[in-house]
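Before relying on records like the one below, remember that each one covers exactly one chain. Contacts with other chains, cofactors or solvent are not represented anywhere in the record.
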Amino acid sequence: MEWKITDGLTDYDDAVAFMEARVTAIAAGEADECVWLLEHPPLYTAGTSARIEDLTDPDRFPVYESKRGGEYTYHGPGQRVAYVMLDLNKRGKDVRRFVKQLEAWVIASLAEFNVKGEIRDGRVGVWVRRDDKPLTASGAPVEDKVAAIGLRLRKWISFHGISINVEPDLDHFSGIVPCGISKHGVTSLVDLGLPVTMADMDAALQKTFSQIFETIRA
């Protein structure tokens, strides 16, 4: 499997074109699986379930229609995007298990920095409890989103993937209702008080990938 790490900012259309070509090549047996780690310039993407009312500031950044699952998401500098082009024909044709593996991968990577990521029913992505913030009006602890997951499959080859907030400008999320969820906020590792670099995150993602995926490969 190839790990591809790109410095600087990658154009969204260029990234999608690469994924489309790579998925076709993997399906034809002409290329290896690939995980691509990158950053995008500030932009919003609309998944297949996106609702136009959740795009609250349509003129702020470019908006791209995406064929991945999910609703509106933000990508931008300081956010590590991991596009996963994996062959589920060889890893078991089980979409739900694969999504759980992606969630487990994010959680294991966050744990490398002593951050406890959690999954919540009815809320896509990975969340952290903010015990440093006052309780909500209902008396519940505040929970902020630290990572998003959006996926597409073609011929059982995956593309798109995950994004983890390392040190993005959190104000940039205010132009959308992230993933259609308005009652909770967004955070990052640096916002949580952790001086994590992109290189640190890349090392964590590469270390934990084999723990989550390789040991249970079909």
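The CA atoms of residues 133 and 139 lie 12 Å apart.
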